[in-house]
Design a protein that fits this description.
2 copies of one chain form a homodimer. By secondary structure, chain A is mainly alpha-helical. Helices cover about 75% and strands about 0% of the residues of chain A. Chain A is elongated and about 60 Å long. The interface between A and B is medium-sized, with 22 and 22 residues. Chain A binds a DNA duplex through helix 2 and helix 4.
DNA sequence: AATTAAATTGAGACTACTCTCATTTTAGTA
DNA sequence: TACTAAAATGAGAGTAGTCTCAATTTAATT
């Protein structure tokens, strides 16, 4: 089992270590079974703790899902931050961010799968992953590169295309062509003047 | 309860009438609870039949979901056929079909909700609802109206935008502006030369 | 009307969970 | 080391379903 969040808490309090174990267990089960079929029993089994312990830390399945979803959104957004490029071209920035976001989501399959399910369910996630996109779109519009008026709906449409690229690649394997086509379509939506 | 499919079978055999009752019941429950939480118990209650009767007609929840999903896809595609316009402009045809498809999906909420869930799950649905779209796209490319190469992936992207428009309107109410923005984005994806 | 075939019924055996709580164990502190 | 507060435990009560099958009812046929 991937102990990503446990490893972060190795030297933290017992409470935090147990929470992290639950989180890692939950990620495994949520990714494999989806929210509705992810039982708390199986999460605690994977985490190596007793069933009842779960309830010392979380109220129910929904609350662990919320926490896991947010943590994953933050980790995936990190992939954007870490790989940010120095160009001033907003189109380039968007393509770069999109590419790395998709790449990471597909490489860490459990994250990708949970992200797909959590995106519509947890409002904070939409915000978290849209930050850079919104900044670069507004910038591109100001520079007259994108011949559109700014509109939240177009941001959502772009997100939906990104989610689709992730979904496909989680199903049929990593494929840079899919990501490139997605980038291309995003620029079309933004009415990018080449 | 909406008895749409039962009404079609009013003068059919007992077997067909019972099946139709199960289908109508299942639609109600699937729309309200989603696939995973739609119990067969509740479906048969709504249908006004005994629990065990379900199993004379369907193997399990998945098999009724498949049938319902396909029936709904066909009904929604009907909304395209019925409203087809005579223009030869493929762009117009696509916008018209999209508009009516979204409208119907949003008006019959149960259908819209089930369609959203079934689209990725049941391959036949993707095919069924893409038929007209593919025809018009190919036509538009031939006429040099859409400056792209034909690609199944772009069809999927368009579908994904349509699904998104439906999802939003099921959540926040019918809104022609959302549909229009979606149509506009579809033409952008097709690189439509105005 | 009698017969047979088809369809329906619902009790109940199974399965699989959620969540609580009295008890035990562990960690941190004096 | 002894103490105490925090955390973990897991048995079990409660809930909610799936699916089967012997018995019954209904429909169709002769």
């Amino acid at each position: 089992m991937n102990k990503f969040f446990q490893n972060k808490e190795n030297h933290s309090s017992k409470k935090n270590r147990t929470r992290a174990a639950i989180i890692d267990g939950a990620i495994e089960v949520l990714a494999k079974k989806g929210f509705q079929n992810a039982s708390i029993r199986e999460m605690t089994e994977k985490a190596g703790i007793a069933n009842g312990t779960f309830y010392n830390h979380y109220k129910d399945r929904r609350s662990i899902f919320d926490e896991v979803g947010k943590l994953i959104a933050i980790e995936l957004t990190n992939a954007i931050e870490i790989n940010e490029i120095t160009t001033k071209d907003p189109a380039q920035k968007i393509i770069n961010a999109t590419t790395h976001f998709i790449k990471r989501s597909v490489q860490v399959k459990a994250w990708g799968n949970i992200f797909l399910e959590a995106y519509e369910e947890i409002p904070m996630i939409k915000k978290e992953v849209s930050r850079y996109l919104i900044r670069d779109i507004k910038n591109g519009i100001k520079k007259k590169l994108f011949k559109i008026k700014y509109d939240d709906f177009i941001v959502e449409q772009i997100n939906v295309l990104i989610l689709h690229a992730i979904r496909i690649q989680l199903k049929t394997g990593q494929d840079i062509k899919i990501t490139n086509k997605t980038s291309n379509s995003i620029l079309h939506l933004l009415n990018y003047q080449r």
